[in-house]
Design a protein that fits this description.
The chain is mostly helical. The protein has one domain. The chain has 11 helices and 2 strands; from the N terminus they run H-H-H-E-H-H-H-H-E-H-H-H-H. It has helices spanning 2-19, 26-62, 71-102, 118-140, 144-155, 170-177, 179-186, 191-207, 217-220, 231-240, 251-255, and strands spanning 107-108, 189-190. The structure holds zinc ion (2 copies). One zinc ion (ZN) binds next to helix 10.
């Protein structure tokens, strides 16, 4: 009997080591995954607070009075954005854990693994894929049924501020949170370019909502500007709702005739 017990114990441990070659117990693994998700949530939250805080501070200095009377709205924007940080942090943390421990994803660290010309190409592919996903899910969320459920929270910011960058209902946050964790399984990318994607995503998310244009006129009103989305373009989406749905580029808006051109950010003092 004791022998049987010992054998079944050995079989159990062999079973575990088959599933987890490093011999890590399931409970330890669950704790590591949870910890990774929590750490990533904290990073996303701090990244949001630092970036939105920086541009809100710049707004107070460069456009004094622009956010006057918006304190109650800003409190809601911060609440929804911090909720979104957890929804963004969880899948990113799980994928980061798998990348670190099991070599998941196509993220590479050896710069020689792909030709150098692939670096800017991978950046462009990520931005285009993210933009395409955003455009179509965003349009879907402007269908009346979905708007009420998932997108009204984002449009409750009238006008949006630098704190509205991640002010999403959890359903909308989920549609955004899965994009990069899914893309890293599909498209190879060097870790530095992935960092660049996250920087562009964060900075454009904040500045497109802050109520004034930081890019120079010569760029925004140029033929290149005709294909790029900055605050002047996204502000019009918040003013008029059923136009200018894109994230980074105006390609889909032009193609689907939903582009209404630039709005008038920062018409307040
Ligand atoms: Zn917006
Ligand atoms: Zn919208």
């Amino acid at each position: 009997m004791r022998q049987l017990g010992r054998r079944s114990g050995r079989l159990r441990s062999e079973g575990w080591s088959f599933l987890h070659p490093n011999g890590i117990k399931r409970a330890d693994m669950d704790t590591a995954i949870l910890l990774s998700a929590l750490v990533m949530t904290a990073i996303v939250a701090l990244r949001y607070l630092a970036t939105s805080g920086l541009f809100a501070w710049a707004t107070a200095r460069l456009r004094p009075g622009l956010y006057d009377g918006l304190a109650p709205q800003i409190r809601k924007e911060i609440f929804w954005s911090l909720t979104s940080a957890a929804i963004y942090g969880a899948p990113a943390g799980i994928v980061a854990w798998g990348w670190h421990n099991h070599g998941w994803t196509r993220v590479y660290t050896d710069i020689g693994s792909f030709p150098l010309w692939y670096l800017p190409l991978s950046l462009a592919l990520y931005l285009l894929a993210h933009d395409t996903w955003f455009y179509w899910t965003h349009r879907l969320m402007h269908q009346p049924k979905w708007f009420r459920v998932a997108h009204a929270v984002h449009h409750a910011s009238r006008p949006p501020t630098a704190w509205a960058a991640m002010s999403f209902h959890p359903i909308e946050a989920l549609t955004g949170a899965i994009v990069i964790p899914a893309l890293v399984f599909l498209i190879p990318i060097h870790i530095s370019m992935l960092a660049m994607v996250l920087v562009i995503m964060t900075v454009m998310g904040v500045t497109n909502h802050m109520g004034w244009e930081m890019f120079p006129r010569w760029l925004v009103h140029s033929s290149a500007g005709n294909w790029l989305i900055t605050a002047s373009h996204h502000q019009r989406h918040h003013d008029e709702y059923r136009c200018n749905y894109g994230l980074y580029f105006r390609f889909w808006d032009h193609l689907c005739k939903t582009d209404k051109g630039l709005g008038q950010p920062a018409i307040r003092p």
